[in-house]
Amino acid sequence: MQSDNPLIVQSDRTLLLDIHAPLSQDCRNALIPFAELISSPEHLHTYALTPLSLWNAASAGFTSGQAIEVLKKYSRYDLPQSVVVWIQETADRFGKLRLVPGPVRKSDTGINEEFLYLVSTSPYVYKEISCNPIAKKLLNPTNYSTEGIPENAAELTEDEKKYCFLLNLTDRGTVKQNLLKIGWPVKDDVPLGQGAPLEFQLREKTGSGKNFQIRKYQEEAAKALLGNGGAGTGFGTIVLPCGAGKTIVGMEVMSLLQTETLIITTNISAVHQWIEELLDKTSLQKDQIAEYTGENKTILPVTVATYQILTWRPDKDGPYPHFSLFRQRKWGLIIYDEVHMLPAPVFRVVAELQAVRRLGLTATLVREDGCEGYVFSLVGPKRYDVPWKELEHSGWIASAQCIEVRLNLPEDQEIEYAVANQRSKHKIASVNPLKEEVTLQLVKKFKDDKILVIGQYLDQLNALAKLLEAPIITGKTPNAERDKIYSDFRNSTIRLLVVSKVANFAIDLPDASMAIQVSGTFGSRQEEAQRLGRILRPKERTSRFFTLITKNTVEEDFGSNRQKFLAEQGYSYRIIRYNDESSFDELEEKARLE
User: Cα-Cα-Cα-Cα dihedral of 7, 8, 13, 15, to 10°?
Assistant: First the structure.
């Protein structure tokens, strides 16, 4: 036992980090490559070892032996032997299966068909996969042959040549996806194709005349994705907080690759922001960048599209006509902005597009449908991650104060709430009319803040916009009007804006310093991350994130799940029980002192 050490390793594969211990900071940095942060409240931070966390680490070259050495070095007590064995067996699964180039054969119709080999060094793994009904549909056990294989193909061991499957090139992503489901991650060592060249530079001064320089962590993130340029590199996911400049990382990757690029993001406003950023911070010209949306379907060397247009189809069971965009040009890079939002139909295309360099950008890999593994296998493993609080301490994102305001439900709605079904209970609690009064009080008290009022229910938001005499943006707002309102907010023509969930993603409102969340989706941690991110651009004042919750209702339960994300990132969460306007006096006084 080493009582000064900061880490307690438990047999359920959770890790408790005592942040007051002398080596806690060093330990936290050492855990980042292979453990997932679960929560980070005031005193004990909890991490978990998961198969995905270990496989993400292994894909970046971090071995099971290194992980065990980290735990031994910082652990207060002896490591549970079961945890050591589990780490070795789980992490060492990565690399037991490799994809390598296969032969090119001419079909009966005279068309060249490309194949890959899935190889293993283990007869046991080979046998398990041979017997699996999912794998058998796409994999054919075969004898290895060098006939038709490119000269630059990967070297195989004698065992790999014995334990070998043949598959169609077009099934590359689907095979990786299906094998991950049965606990076998695939190391993809098939070289990526080269896209059409595109020469441009990042500016030293932006179009508006400001100095522009890539931050160290942004440069590190881009290099982590590209690696040495060899097989197994050039694809993956970068996890950075909202406000940390994920768009800049994307541009840095583009600059290093110098190739034609397809960028896919969440909505038309985000498309316009990407285009504005590219024109402002690179030497690319307007005639080199295109918008591919419901309003404008142009394709140029850099094309920015929305997920919505790609997943649109004229009838429910028909094909997706805009998937052809992926094949219109010889793309050398595809950037999936807000990759945690990747829709299921796009996963289908990503499964096919495995020969293209691909970058996923996100603030959180949390998916409420539990499909983080799809991002791992199809877009690529996590290559870089920085804790939110680390960037806050460095001044790259704003400090934030998170406050939950608990309100009573009006007496005349209590019976209605009591007899309602679960979904109706959520809406009754969410649109509590007292929230309008409290929102107005907060807006009046914090006069120096630029405020976003965020919610889910349109009737509630329209009533708030009228009460506050503020513009409103919802899914029905025309894109031209939407862009103008965002612009007015950025240049301080307005200081107050009401927004629906359309503003959750990929919207840059750098001066927003306060958010009031009046209603939200059913306990979505992903949504909480994005909404908090709206107010985290660097600024001198502390940002404030208010969430209005109706006491003793289902909204409290859903709210606790959303709070979990904030605790995971190390944010303290203060609760105010609202009685009247004086409930906020202490906060108002602190704001005056800033």
Answer: -40
